[in-house]
Amino acid sequence: MAAPEGIRRIADSVWELPPTLRPGMRVPVRICATEPLLHAMDDQVFKQAANVATLPGIVGYSFVMPDAHWGYGFPIGGVAAMDPETGVISPGGIGFDINCGMRLVLTDLTFDDVQPKLHELVDTLYDRVPAGVGAKGFVKLSQSEFAEVLEQGAGWCVRNGYGVEEDLARTEESGCLMGADVECVSDRAIERGYRQIGTLGSGNHYLEIQVARPEHIVDPELAAQLGITRPNQIAVMFHCGSRGFGHQVATDYLQIFLRAMTTKYGMEIIDRELACAPFKSDEGRRYFAAMQCAANMSFASRQVILHRIREVFGAVFHRDWRELGLRMIYDVAHNTAKLETHVVEGRSRQLLVHRKGATRAFGPGMPGLPPEYQRTGQPVIIGGSMETGSYLLTGVAGGAATFFSTAHGSGRTMSRTKAKHAYRGRDLQRSMEHRGIYVRTVSFGGLAEEAGAAYKDIDAVVEATEHAGLSHRVVRFTPIGNVKG
Amino acid sequence: MPYEYLEDGVTSDVTFHAWGATLDELFSAAADATTNVMIATLDTVRPRISKPVSVSADTLDLLLLRLLDELIFYKDAEGLILRATNVHVETVDHAHQARADLRGEPIDRNAHELSGDVKAVTLHGLRVEQHDAGWHAEVTLDV
Q: Does residue A125 sit within a domain?
């Protein structure tokens, strides 16, 4: 695989594809990657990013993050900001798993505290946090209560005893997008999702016990400001989204948009997964309101999972979770479209920023960050494969170049089908245990698909985000326990 | 097994090809390919519950998407693992309709070896085509 002809190096880790690459491109494509990562990208990434550049109202560039890989519609790791007055909203720029995200929880425990109880801890988390195909959540809601969750997000959870106010301040958008309107959601989506709050899902979703080894603290000063002060401090990181509810919202609106594009708006469909509608249209407005419901479902889901994690730590260590210091560092979303204010060519403008497999990374001093992160910049959580490690980074001022967006994970390089043929789940579990990572999984086939070798090198990806000026590395976390769906 | 999973499909998801002599056979095969992503062995699904479904669409590929979406819907909404039986596809005045009897049972971790949770049927490369030997489909599932 090679980058297309005509690619131009703009800076050490920034590349540009001109708008002449394909007809209809309104802006160039900008790829943030080191040279090796650029050359390892699927050809489809460039093609899809060029398709994104044709969308009406796109401002600046169609961006590609260093962990990008072939998706549908947008590449995964694609970012595009639209003018809300003239531009479109595209479900393909958000993904089926709306507001899928990462939450990082710190403890005051160290590796030596946790190691003797690691099996009990992981086994209990596996029993208490539902995961895998068909799992139902532990928060029993009626459909009308679920509708409240859709409009109130994580705040509903805190008001109902699942967490504390501080958790909300440390969640992107305080855990609630205010434009959610349940009237814009199908009954089918509600029926599909109302029993799934607090479930992890499967695929690349996980819950991990991690350790911050002293040799992996990249920026000790920032690490300390974010609460990482003890050698071999233990953290919990988990990754999940809006479950069947969000998947159904996306499925419903893709089909509505496809029909409206041709029959109502006379727009050319270049890829059906890139279906879109004017943001100011009835379809666009309704999708945006439904998408925000799914985002709120996802924030709520991660909030009640946090509650469960606190209960489990309390039970396993026979102490209240507060005494164990279980506090959130942050919750980031990586499949969203949000109205944000950005400076473009010296002018402050409201833009609809699509981030698909990309993380918002606000720099220091930006509105929307809680007081404790005003100086550090927004914590950015990038999950790697279960065998390697994950990172905590922070947003930087230079992120303005990409509408304050950075990578979201390590990015796959091998298809699930291929990985399943190449690895055996039970062998992988044994081999990981030898290497000090205790894994429990609902599906051994699913575990094989998540083998570390199926992913890009996480160290290379986060280094590239730093080189490209998108985010700053603080600490690398090493997994020691993992729950997979 | 009238379907196969592609090793070079979309990296993060599952792409399969399915085929059949008739549209009825093709849609049954694609349904089994979808269910087989969620559980490892189809034979372990006992037909204890029946969910009759009927879907319609302007094109055959969207018709297939809607049928497969029913399997995904019941998996989440009612925790059921289902296989499509008695699939019947018909076209009247350019309007396509598929009817099927989805049969299966509640997901049971002791009886079913679980695999990936299918999130959605994507439109990426989705196609239903007629060849000399019958019908063929390509489907990418988001997992």
A: yes
Contacts of A133 in chain B (CB under 8 A): 38-39, 75, 81, 107, 114-117
In a domain, A291, yes or no: yes
**pLDDT tens-digit profile of A398-444?**
999 999 999 999 988 888 889 989 999 999 999 999 999 999 999 99
pLDDT of residue A43: 92
The residue of chain B nearest to residue A188, with distances taken between CA atoms, is: B73
Between chains, do B142 and A96 touch, taking CB under 8 Å as contact? yes
CATH of the domain at A169: 3.90.1860.10
Q: Which of B5, B80, B140 minimises the CB distance to A72?
A: B140
In a mutational test of the B interface, the residue from A67, A70, A72 whose CB has the highest number of chain B CBs within 10 Å is A72
- Nearest residue, CB atoms, B116 vs list A188, A203, A413: A203
- pLDDT exceeds 60 at position A1: no
Given A205, A239, A334, A408, which residue is catalytic?
A: A408
Residues of A in contact with B68 (CB under 8 A): none
Question: Is A314 inside any structural domain?
Answer: yes
Which residues of chain B have a CB within 8 Å of the CB of A73? 124
Q: Are A63 and A78 in contact (CB under 8 A)?
A: yes
Q: Who contacts B121 (Cβ-Cβ below 8 Å, separation ≥6)?
A: A251, B34, B64, B65, B68, B69, B72, B139, B140, B141, B142
Q: Is A354 part of the annotated catalytic residue set?
A: no
Report the pLDDT averaged over residues A224-253.
Answer: 97
User: If you average pLDDT over residues A235-239, what whole number do you get?
Assistant: 98
pLDDT digits (tens, 9 = 90+) for A339-361: 999 999 999 999 999 999 999 99
A62-95, pLDDT tens digit by residue? 999 999 998 889 999 999 999 999 999 999 999 9
Chain A neighbors of B143, CB-CB under 8 A: 202-203, 416
Q: Is the pLDDT of residue B7 over 90?
A: no
Q: How many domains does chain A have?
A: 1
Mean pLDDT (whole number) for A206-216: 98
Range of the domain at A194: 8-413+455-484
User: What pLDDT, in 10s, does the model give residues A45-57?
Assistant: 999 999 999 999 9
Give the pLDDT confidence score for residue A215 in this predicted structure. Answer: 98
Nearest chain B residue to A41 by CA distance is: B11
Residue range B19-142 in CATH 3.55.10.10 = yes
Chain A partners of B80 at a C-beta cutoff of 8 Å? Answer: 134
CB contact under 8 A, A415 and B77: no
CB pairs under 8 A between A and B: 134
**Of the candidates B15, B113, B120, which has its C-beta nearest A250's C-beta?**
B120
> Across the interface, do B12 and A76 touch by the CB < 8 Å criterion?
yes
Instruction: Answer yes or no: do B117 and A132 touch at CB < 8 A.
Output: yes
User: Each residue of A379-392: pLDDT tens digit?
Assistant: 999 999 999 999 99
- Mean pLDDT taken over chain A: 96
